[in-house]
Design brief:
With 154 residues, this protein is of the alpha+beta class. Helices cover 44% and strands 16% of the residues.
């Protein structure tokens, strides 16, 4: 078996353990950087009452803590399922270089485990989305928020 397949099987085994032992979501992820496993994680949405605690998000969080940086440039994520739009965005923000997944949206569809809905929703124009995203310009008195951020970066 190739390293890719080994890591994908590891993510599936993590997901299966989550299903069998915790009776919860069938998702696992392994994050590897420079040939070293930085994180192995499962979906912990129910356990933490945190809707963002998907396996890939948990892997990004754990790997970032393990290396003391949010820069995961060149890392590879091996996921049991197709990543949702939130997880994909987090991986982009962290600099993950590649994602492999073992189960597609089509595989998950009959079980209501497809991530496609999020991608479809985000692709819609703002005025057509189910959840309105509304810009309403507001500023506090004093220094501008973004200018303050820029000043502390220098």
């Amino acid at each position: 078996m190739s390293n890719t397949e080994n890591y994908l099987v590891d993510s599936i085994r993590l997901a299966m353990e989550n299903v069998r032992e915790r009776k919860t979501w069938p998702f696992g992820a392994v994050l590897v950087k420079d040939g070293k496993v930085l994180a192995r994680s499962v979906n912990e949405v129910d356990a933490t009452c945190d809707p963002s605690a998907h396996a890939e998000m948990q892997a990004v969080r754990a790997a970032s803590k393990a290396q003391g940086s949010t820069d995961l440039s060149g890392a590879v994520v091996y996921a049991s399922g197709y990543p949702c739009s939130m997880c994909l965005s987090a991986m982009y923000l962290a600099g993950v270089g590649k994602v492999y997944y073992a189960y597609s949206n089509e595989d998950g569809e009959p079980y209501d485990l497809s991530a496609e809905r999020g991608y479809v929703e985000i692709a819609r124009p703002l005025e057509q989305r189910e959840m309105p995203l509304v810009y309403h310009r507001a500023r506090d008195e004093g220094q501008d928020l973004y200018e303050a951020w820029q000043a502390v970066q220098e």
